[in-house]
Amino acid sequence: MMTQLSDLLDDAIADPPARDSIVKPYVLSHGTLECKSLRESRRFYEEFLGLECVQHGPRSMAVRCGMKFHIVCVEVGSALHPVTYLSHWGVDVSSNAEVEAAHAAALANRERYGIGKITDIVEQHGVYSFYFEDLDHNWWEIQHYAAGFQHSDMFDFGDVFESSKG
What we know:
Glyas_Fos-R_dOase_dom; 2,3-Dihydroxybiphenyl 1,2-Dioxygenase, domain 1; about 25% helix; VOC family protein
């Protein structure tokens, strides 16, 4: 079955380069974020963001969309640690119009889903996007990359600045 993702990618595998590193990973598999309430966060992830969720523990669930990478969402209640927009999760959509529709939906559904700050839509770092803060103070970027799939280009372009190399 062909999907939008399979149309953009003929394969989703990026074989790790041979490196003389201490750890020899074969895949970056997951990340973690905190939430106050699994029930409320799951409702937001599924109904607003369109993500797939499965609860695999009494205080945790896995969240994914499109690729074999997942986010583990851990319920921590009032021990939540808010983050800034620089620590955000990116969600790609198919067009600038979909970015605009998501932005309008975020504004219209602020109260329903506990959405906090919402930035204006901008064209920056090669994408058309906006950021917003969810009910758990996690940040999301809804973006459209007109050239296709940004991940491919980001690594195909290679290092542009060398200052991070040891």
